[in-house]
Specification:
Number of domains: 2
CATH architecture of the largest domain: Sandwich
Largest sheet: 6 strands, mixed
Strand order of the largest sheet: 12-13-21-15-18-19
Radius of gyration: 38 Å
Number of strands: 21
CATH topology of the largest domain: Jelly Rolls
Structural class: alpha+beta
């Protein structure tokens, strides 16, 4: 059947109208999508910027190591004092490779690390810190600590009088095993003195006072020794001090030779190890004479063979044994003075060349 020409024109017109309408809808949909997406991106950027403004940055924390804001160098066993503060911070987080430092910290404070003897020599350690408040965080700051010199051999790995294979030697302590004899007019052992600690023998911490103390050993066939722990405090770098000893004038005590040492370990006479760690003047035996002194000083004397150089704020032991053995004698070869095996031996000891410890 033949369709009228007017119907063909109507179909074409409807198709054209539909095409225009659909195209307009697509354009409107496309334009609307673009507008909606742009608005979303703009809103997201505004939120990000707002969040960045909310997450404020705290001022850079202050961090010093042994008073320095730069790199420092220490010897194994030297104390390390770390001080920090951060304005507006409520807490800090410590990190880095320096043992004893990492962990949670207050917003400001100070800590002194004493147990550094095990730090490896010729090694650089890091000290890092970042601080925060409820709504802000600081950038991380870092300091470095270089350990110079040989690695210190731990006490438990050394041959020491009174320990391990040398446990037949007895360290003087307190009570009936005290090392202090009373000054006249009193007599007898001072049982309240604890000879394991310098400030329990003298009335003040190292370097003590000008008071004389009567030090003595008796018993155990002479295999006794004195090892007094002390802290060097703020010893000046160029300081010179001494422990003067005289022949004993109490209880009929004999004098005899004495082998002295200052070391980081009690009962330590490993001269080679001590010299490598502290210098050449820290193991000494007096010569014949009535009045002689064991000399010590600050770090400036590290190369002095007649003076034991001490680092500031470091724990040491003043060791004494009555023997004719010379410095460098292996600890297992040290034997008591013969007279001390059956009789009391002793000395009058007086500190001199004092400084005020902190």
């Amino acid at each position: 059947m033949t369709r009228p020409s007017w119907m063909f024109l109507l179909v074409v017109s409807l198709a054209a109208a539909c095409s225009a309408a659909c195209s307009a809808d697509d354009d409107a949909s496309f334009d609307g999508g673009a507008a909606d997406g742009g608005e979303a991106r703009d809103a997201g950027e505004e939120r990000d910027a707002g969040e960045e403004r909310d997450a404020a940055v705290l001022p850079r924390p202050s961090l010093t190591v042994n008073g320095s804001e730069g790199a420092i160098s220490i010897a194994p066993g030297d104390a390390i004092e770390i001080t920090w503060s951060a304005a507006g911070a409520s807490a800090c987080t410590a990190s880095g490779t320096l043992p004893g430092w990492p962990g949670e910290r207050a917003g400001s404070g100070s800590v002194t690390l004493m147990d550094t003897a095990s730090l490896a020599g010729d090694t650089v350690y890091t000290v890092q810190l970042v601080c925060s408040s409820d709504s802000a965080v600081s950038e991380q700051v870092e300091r470095t600590v270089r350990v110079v010199g040989p690695t210190i051999v731990p006490c438990e790995e050394r041959a020491l009088l009174g320990q391990g294979a040398l446990s037949d030697w007895v360290r003087k302590t307190t009570g009936p095993n005290s090392c202090v004899w009373a000054n006249p007019p009193r007599t007898g052992l001072v049982a309240t003195a604890d000879c394991r600690f310098f400030d329990q023998v003298w009335p003040r911490p190292w370097p003590g006072s000008g008071n004389t103390r009567n030090l003595t050993v008796f018993g155990n066939e002479g295999r006794q020794f004195i090892a007094m722990e002390f802290d060097s405090g703020n010893i000046p770098a160029d300081h010179r001090g001494r422990m003067t000893q005289e022949v004993p004038q109490f209880a009929g005590a004999n004098s005899g030779f004495k082998l002295w040492s200052i070391s980081r370990c009690p009962g330590d006479y490993n001269a080679e190890l001590i010299e490598a760690e502290m210098g050449p003047g820290c193991v000494w035996r007096e010569e014949l004479g009535f009045t002689q002194s064991f000399e010590y000083g600050g770090p400036d004397h590290a190369d002095d063979p007649r003076r034991c150089a001490l680092a500031p704020h470091t724990r040491y032991y003043l060791n004494l044994v009555w023997t004719s053995a010379l410095p460098g004698t292996a600890p297992e070869d040290i034997v008591p003075m013969e007279i001390c095996t059956t009789e009391r031996c002793g000395m009058n000891a007086t500190p001199a060349g004092l400084y005020l410890p902190d």
